[in-house]
């Protein structure tokens, strides 16, 4: 069982390194579009502020698209960081550890008979069936935003 990474130190480092940029995955873009929020998965989004919401909330960022007046607040697990540099490496490490921790927590809760209704990592029957046919370089159907080969396609 992995330990939940602390986001406090990362937040301090991110604030010092501002401005920072990210992108959202295609899957996150689709989920947002269903809610009437239209962001491009190809455009860089500016991170305006960063907050540590503790173990349950993780690190959240306020982001803004260059062509929008709206600001959106999302978990850092919803972002991808194509830019290079030490801070982006640290963000990616935290993001991957957070996703792994959330997945393990949900699996542990499922084994106890506790199911979070809105868990993006919950494996429904449809998702379990889909996992067997997902090409390894496609987005994982569990909703993590990772490629299948880096998510449910590897052994936990």
Report what the structure shows.
With 156 residues, the chain is of the alpha+beta class. It is built from five helices and five strands. It has a five-stranded antiparallel β-sheet. The chain is globular, with a radius of gyration of 16 Å. About 8% of the residues have low confidence.
Defining key terms:
single chain, 156 residues, alpha+beta, 5-stranded antiparallel sheet, 5 helices, 5 strands
- Number of helical segments with 4 or more residues: 5
Described by strand count, sense and barrel closure, the largest sheet is:
5 strands, antiparallel
In whole angstroms, the N-to-C terminal distance is: 10 Å
Share in β-strands: 15-25%
Low-pLDDT stretches: 121-132
Give the tally of β-strands: 5
Strand order of the largest sheet: 4-3-2-1-5
User: Can you give the helix content as a percent range?
Assistant: 25-40%
